[in-house]
Structures are given as structure tokens and as C-alpha cells.
Amino acid sequence: MNISLLMFLLFIAITLGITYWASRRSAGSSAYFAASRQIKGWQNGIAVAGDYMSAASFLGIAGIIAFQGYDGFLFSVGWLVAYLTVLLVIAEPLRNAGKYTMADVLAYRMKPRPVRAMASLSTLTVSTFYMIAQMVGAGALVKLLLGGYVNYNQAVTGVGILMIVYVVFGGMLATTWVQIVKAILLMSGTILLSILVMAHFHFSFGEFFGAISQVTYHDAKGQQVVKDFLQPGLRYKPPYGPLDLISLGMALIFGTAGLPHILVRFYTVPDAKTARNSVVWAMVLIGSFYIMTTFLGFGAATIVGPDFIKGHGGNNMSAPLLAQALAGNIFFAFISAIAFATILAVVAGLTISATTSFSHDFWTNVIHNGVERKPGEEVLVARISAFVVGAVAILIAIVLGPTANVAFLVALAFAVAASANLPVIVLSIFWRRFNTTGAVAGLTVGLLAAIGLILLSPSLMAVDPPTVVGTARHLIQAKAWFPLENPGILSIPLGFVGAILGTLLSNEPSSQEKFNELLVRSNTGLGAEKAAAH
Amino acid sequence: MANAAGNLEVAQPKQYQASKSTWDEIAASNAFQDLMATKKIFIVPAFIFFVVYYFALPVLVGYAPQFMSIKIGNVNLAYLFALSQFFVAWIIAGLYVRAANGFDRLAKDILDKAENAKGGK
């Protein structure tokens, strides 16, 4: 019996148990969408970490550092520091003034229908792109790890069905606990792996960093090279590298606070103070994890080596291969199962945020003017849309196939969140004059700018050699018009300009009428949604 | 549209409702102005500091790689500066939580007063 398979099945069994338990506590909108707002601060902190640390961070970062050294570590830094924006600016006002989605805050003093429709579109865009990247990654990973047992299509379908089951039956409560279990597993695996890496170097940092300063591998031309992997510039090279790095930083720092699947987590706690504490808990976990990517990434570079990783599944296999090199097949299976758990927890979070937005923002508030026609309709619509979202994600991931060029989708999700969502959230809380036209314009311009610039970037525009085939090829076979992979540096200011111009060019006194109410509510918590009674 | 918002509130009542004049009164009160000023004094500088400190990293790494490659002990300046970001972020978060306890006290007075004026919740 394959040990990896056994551990995968164990994790699935545990999460299905959680879902069964949660399904009996998920009746009613507040229970289904916000886990009755009874999640404790530390629990929500762990769940935020579990929601956030995707396969891109665990497998992706280890891989980028293993191949491109120090520059990869810069992702790790941005992914933590971004939480200061969440903590200082977004989490508490959102919890105080909203109900289930970020659009609750945006629509508060605006005309609700246009604002919610655009906010919902933006949420669905971010969640779907992010989800497809995760699903394709999951399929490729499961196929590599369980090769012989399941193929890519079966793996994608399996992951999709599991996430549908968690969300349809267990709602936010099941999603939360799946994320908590995953975060604990991910942290334990990472700590263990870090200790083993240091043990390999006899617990001497001198020896460890000595090895990092001379990583030997063969470059694209087959030449043997020795590089100092702590040296900046292996990934972000002139002329555009430095600018791309700043642009990436902007998307991370301002995008995290606009990611719908992170924002909905703050509605699951009883009040703003607990939301604040949960961000701090999340920051402790997320920060510790990303510091440890030093050991995962550089460990893989020095102990396993880029040459070996390239020949055994590539980039994303760096962490599992490191585990195998250090402690054999059982540890390989354990780390692989953690990677699988990581993906499942993140896609479940993405699914619930997408379905909450569709059901609460679009169905109830845009189509039916804010009225639930019969009790339970909102939750029913959410369950159906979870099923649809899951099915669509499975189909797209299968059509794209395991070699599809999808890494840019994560960058795109962050860019849309930073360029469309963040400007309008900030302006609606802080700018009295801000109005409906401004909010709709900001969301539209931010969304289009981020997508448009990515379409014209080297991620989608490049000339491939004929050896690259199918969906692995770049979408547009021409030299990129926009030189940066990350559009943030241009699309974020555009989002703000759209929002501000839209406001100044229109006159809408009604949106200022409720500004004081929103200001008082968001800053004091007066009248905030309370936890359901026990 | 105003009708739409009205329907929403009938269907799902908020815990605290008040007229526009009450909200304006609270917003203009000294207690609330105090709260906003106290928040601003901490949040604005903290936000500016962390944004500047963070973007110094990609700017220096991108445009002064030679300088950032200076060796310090076993590692280099680039790695140490990146590592320092984690600790600076944790410290700012810790300071914010301390400051926010003060915000909570100010907010509680406003909450109590508003809810009492309504004759209890």
C-alpha cells in the first residue's frame, strides 16, 4: 500500500468527519456564511493562516528559492508584511460595518445594486482565477505523488468534489476547521523539515549559509555553474526586474487586504476586537512559516540541488523531494499529504467566498432588492452556486490540463484585489465625498486594468519555441507590450484614479448622507452584527 | 434605491438603529472626535512607516544589489534586511494592539452612551 495514498485518505476522512459535524450546525444565513460568528480569535487566526498559505506558498516558494535563491525569499516577506494593511486599515471597520461580504461595507451608503453587482463580479473574478491556479496545481501534484493510482483528471475531479462537499454541507464552519487542521499540519511539517535541514548542517548556521553561497548546478545551456544563492538578482534582472519587484510588492501589500476569501473570515468572529486579535495570531503563524521558507527553499537548493529537482518533477516538487532526501519515503508521504491538505483548505475558502458573494450580494441584494423571498433562500442559493462553481472549476482545470501556464493567475488575483477592491474599500470608509459612480468606476477600472495589463505582459505574451505545445504555450505569440509580470504599479493607481474621477465627475448627495453613520459604525462597532446565541 | 435599503433592514434588523440626526450628533461629539484623533495619531504614522520600510527592500535590492550583497558574518545585508521585515511587522502589530486597547476604551464610552440613550439595547 502506498503510504502517500494512505495519508491522503486519512486527511480526507478527518475533513469529512468535520463536515458531517458542521453540517448539523449550519442552518440559517449567519451560521452558514459566518459560522454563527462564534469562532474564537486564536481559532480564526489559525484559520486565516490556513486560508492564506496556498500551494503557491508552500510548494511554489520552496521551488522559487531552490532555483532562484534570495529573490524568491522576497515573496515570503511581502506575504507577511501585507497583514499590516489588513490589521491597521481593513479588518476592524469591515467587521464593524459589514455582515457577510466586503460589498456590505461598499454598498452601505451607496446605491446598493450597481455597487454590489460590480463588487460581486470582482470577487468572483479573483476567486475563480485563484481557484483555477490551485486546481491545476493540485491535479499535477496529486498525479506526481500518487502516480499509478490516479491520473490528472481524476485528481482534479477529486479535489473539486471534496471542496464542493465541504462547502455545500459544512458551510463556513466546516471550511474554518478544515483550514485550522491544515494550518496545524503545515506548521508541524515545516518545523520538522526545518529542524532536519539544520540537523543536516550539524545545527551550524555557518555551515548552512556556507553551502548556500556555493550552489552548483547546470544552467539552461548545460554549463556547470556555481552561484551564491543569497545574492539578489537571480530572478529579477535589469532592465525591468527591479520595477517588477516593486510592482509585485505593491500587489502583495495592497492586494491581501482586498482578497475576498481572507476578508470573509473576519465575519466569523464575535466582534472587531476579536478580529484584530485573530490578525495578530495569523501574523505570528504566517510570519514564522515564511521565515522557515529559508530552510525549505535553501535546504532544497543545497541538499537536493536544482539539477535533481528538475529531473524529478520540477520546481513544485522541491519541498517533498527535500523531505525524501532527509528522512525517506514516509516523510515524503507526510509532506505530500500536507501539500494536498493545503490546496484543499484554500480552495474551500475560495469557494465559500465566491458563493457567499454570489448569493448574498448578487442574488439577494441585486436581483431581489435585499429581500429573501422565503427563509433559507440565501443559503440554498449559496449551496447551489458552490456546486456550480466547483463543477466549472473542475471543467476548466481539465480543459487546461496539467502543463497549462497558470502561475500568472495567482499574480492576477492579487493584482485585481489590490487595484479594484482595495481602493473602493478604503475610499468608502475614509472619504465622505465618495459615491456610487466612483465605486463602480474604481472597481471597473481596477479590474480591467489588472486583467488588461496581465494580458499584455510577458506572462501571456511571448514567443515560444515550437517544442512548447498546447496550453503550455503563451496565449499571444508576440513580444510582450507591457514589460512587467506584475501590473500593480500601474493598475493600483489606475483603480484609485478611476474611483476618484468617477466621484468628482458626478453629483450624488445621497451617498454622503449616511457617511457619518458608516463612520461611527465602522469605528466604534455600534450596531455591529452580533454572534448568534448559544 | 432608498427603498431597497429599507427593505433589507426590515428583513434583517440591525441591533442598533438610529435616525440620521443621532448619527450626526455622535459623529460630531467630543468623545467621537477624540477617538478618531487618537486613532489617527497612531495609525497614520505606523502605516507610513511600514510602507516606507517595506518598499526600501525591493528598491535597495533592485537598484543597489552590490550594496545589498555586502557580507555580514555568514549572511549578507539583503538577507538581514529581509529578515528584519518580519520582526518589524510583528513589533508594529504588537504596538497597534496596545494602542487599540486605548481605542476600545474610548469607543466603549460612546457605545454605552448611545445605547443608554435608546433605553437599553
Short synopsis of the structure:
The complex is a heterodimer of chains A (534) and B (121). By secondary structure, chain A is mainly alpha-helical.
Please give a structural write-up.
The complex is a heterodimer of chains A (534) and B (121). Chain A is mainly α. Helix content of chain A is 72%, strand content 1%. Chain A is built from 20 helices and two strands. In chain A, strands 1-2 form a two-stranded antiparallel sheet. In chain A, helix 4 (55-68) runs antiparallel to helix 5 (70-97), helix 8 (152-200) packs across helix 14 and helix 16 (408-430) packs parallel to helix 18 (488-504). The longest helix of chain A has 50 residues, at 318-367. The model of chain A has no long low-confidence stretch (mean pLDDT 90). Chain B is 81% helix and 3% strand. Classes of the chains: A mainly alpha (534), B mainly alpha (121). At the A-B interface, helix 5, helix 9, helix 10, helix 12 and helix 20 of A face helix 1, helix 2, helix 3, strand 2 and helix 5 of B.
Query: What kind of assembly state do the chains in view correspond to?
Result: heterodimer
> Beta fraction of the residues of chain B?
under 5%
Helix/strand-derived category of chain B reads: mainly alpha
**How is the largest sheet of chain A built, in terms of strand order?**
1-2
Largest sheet of chain B: 2 strands, antiparallel
> How many E strands of chain B?
2
**Structural domains of chain A: how many:** 1
Count the DSSP helices of chain B.
Answer: 5
Sheet-strand content of chain A, in percent, reads: under 5%
**Radius of gyration of chain A from CA coordinates:** 23 Å
Low-confidence stretches of chain A: none
List keywords for this structure.
heterodimer; A: 534 residues; mainly alpha; Sodium/glucose cotransporter; two-stranded antiparallel ribbon; 2 strands; globular; B: 121 residues; 5 helices; 81% helix
